[in-house]
What we know:
Blueprint: H1 3-6, H2 9-35, H3 55-62, H4 64-73, H5 91-95, H6 99-108, H7 112-119, H8 129-136, H9 139-148, H10 164-170, H11 174-183, H12 198-204, H13 208-216
Helix pairs in contact: 3-4, 6-9, 8-10, 10-11, 10-12, 11-13, 12-13
Amino acid sequence: xxxxxQEPLHRINEDEELELKILNKDDRSKDARSTRPTGNKRTSSxxxxxxxxxxxxxxxxxxxxxxxxxxxxxxxxxxxxxxxDNFQRNVFHYAVSxxxxxxxxxxxxxxxxxxxxxxxxxxxxxxxxIHRAAVIGNxxxxxxxxxxxxxxxxxxxxxxxxxxxxLAVKSRSVVAVRFxxxxxxxxxxxxxxMLQSPVHYAASLKQSSVLELLICKGCDTTEK
Length: 224
């Protein structure tokens, strides 16, 4: 007979009941911590799967239907647009893939200084929101950002010092390349940290249509 079988039945029941109470208390403590209010702003103390504590970022990532409902129910000015997730991306890094959402955020937010700072923030790959827009080749978002602040076109990535045109070429988007050349022709001969220009990128990627466009626009083909 085991030691537990030798113990009085009432003692076994008491021990199991005590253990169950302890477990329940721990569970309630965890629930309380995850739902504890943090003030007037609608934030959560528990990070989501994408590593973000900002409900605005989560709403934008979920899609247009969720975002529209979220915009109706909340005041965007209650949120810090400079807040980032585990990838060091703020809400604008995600909004560039949804031009209608990007436009609404820029229109509704009143803290212009915070917007400007957020649009200049780099993620863990060194890219700002306009760089992300160039990577995915979203022309509508590029138009919106250019109209909001055309100086964003001059930004280079924090890593490798690539221009928006470098990234458009790298993403193999002829439409994005044409957009940047039309908006800012001076981008054509910008160089990265390795002194490589967009034409070098096009040649190494064997992008004949992009290469032809760059040459047609007068890029410097001198080998460096």
